[in-house]
Amino acid sequence: MATGKTNSRWMRFICDEFDLSGDSRTIGTMGITYAEDDVTGQSNGVHNFTLGIPTAALSGYQSVFATDGSARSYDALAAVETRIVSVPIGIKAAPAVGDPAFLHYADQSSFTHDGAGPVLITANLPRGTDYIDLERVWGVTLAAGTSISATTNYSSVDNGASTTNGLKAFLHVTTTSSGNWSLVIQDSANDSVWADLITFSSDGSAITAEVGEASGTVDRYLRFQATRTAGTTAFWVTAARQ
Amino acid sequence: MATGKTNSRWIRIYVDDSAGSARDLSASVNSVGSVGLTHDESDVTAYSDGVHNFTLGHPQAPIDLTGTFNNVATTGAHTVFSGIVGKEVDAGSAWTSTVTVQIGIKAAPASGDPEFEGEYVCAAYNVAGDGTFTARMVPASATAPAWGTVA
Fold first, then answer.
1. Model ipTM?
2. Which residues in chain B touch residue A47, judged by CB atoms under 8 angstroms apart?
3. 3-state DSSP assignment of residue A2
4. Using DSSP, how many helices (H) and how many strands (E) does chain B show?
């Protein structure tokens, strides 16, 4: 896993079962902002605050207008609906396992064309109705979209320590040819003995996106494992410890 | 201790990470916004007063940091802010992050140089599509941040 500064060209935009990175121009702004509740008392020395309900959003996403009838920016975003979005951030290279990622479960709120210059699409994606309680939106990349055709234990990601508030993960199957897989996220305390933490229902036979959740303790190391029965398939997987 | 005018290149910014260790974010941050205390102004002007006059209320002291996305271990802005955004409690006790802004005088900060320090929580951390980030720190203690000097 590389570390350090990077360039926006190494961000990727994965929306549901679509890798729109080839059409995306700018992500806009992504992150989380908490309400600031002023709790200042008269004898306090300064205005001081407690943090209220956060707002997670991805706003100002823009892509070129493109369509192939199924998997380009227009095809993916024209219907304004709920989205499972991962934004892996590569560090001076295309995203790799271990690189940071922004996870966002969104209700897309807009889709507009800009006819000036290259035809552009702008979409805003505020946080969707929370059937998943995703407060920690910054996570890591566990699989970076490369097509595979053999059973693969992806590289592990070291968090430095275990955590206790569970894990939220997004699986994006973006391409597949006769895929038949068992797809799991595993954790380990020592990077050698692994246990299944999240088992995805998708078998990779069709392009799709899925949310996986685990509660309780998440050991120090995480990895994604794809066990092949058949086919060639591309997986993007991101996960955020809660 | 040097004195006189300086340049923003000599500012250094330290923020406690989620484990409470002070981290030098100066390799990521390129702006600290407005640093200091801004008091509420209560207009107490009466009819016969010759001018609008004021008493001072509580000060505000937010710190809005911007810079370049950086995930280097321990001291990268993403490494620190992604871990502290929204954090107010640790092991059942109230938690704050010490934020220190040191201002060197035509050189890296040295003993005696000005610094502003207080106890904060991170209310927002957002990354823009151009690879920059913003992080907003707000006071979380009844004790006001204060100007002092580098030890």
1. 0.85
2. 40, 58-61, 139
3. coil
4. 1, 12
